[in-house]
Amino acid sequence: MEIQRDAYLQQLVLRKDNGMIKVITGIRRCGKSLSLSSDIATYFLCTLSNI
User: What is the rounded end-to-end Cα distance, in angstroms, of the chain?
Assistant: First the structure.
């Protein structure tokens, strides 16, 4: 089962070039690493392939 986190991904994308470090926080085992490795990586790989 995959949970879509489109709102969180959009917030990160909007703030990606502001020069600040982004920290993803949350309770244990809520999917922080999974969303970082799959959703965000997929987004940035797609944007790099469009360049």
Answer: 32
The DSSP secondary structure of 1-51, one letter per residue, reads -----HHHHHHHHHTTTSSPPP----STTSSHHHIIIIIIHHHHHHHHHT-
If pLDDT is split at 50, 70 and 90, which confidence band does 51 have?
A: low
User: pTM of the prediction?
Assistant: 0.55
State both tokens at 13.
Answer: 């994308």
Phi, psi of 13 (to 5 degrees): -65, -40
Q: Which of 28, 45, 34, 25 is nearest to 4 (CA)?
A: 34
Q: Please give the residue that has the higher pLDDT: either 12 or 49.
A: 12
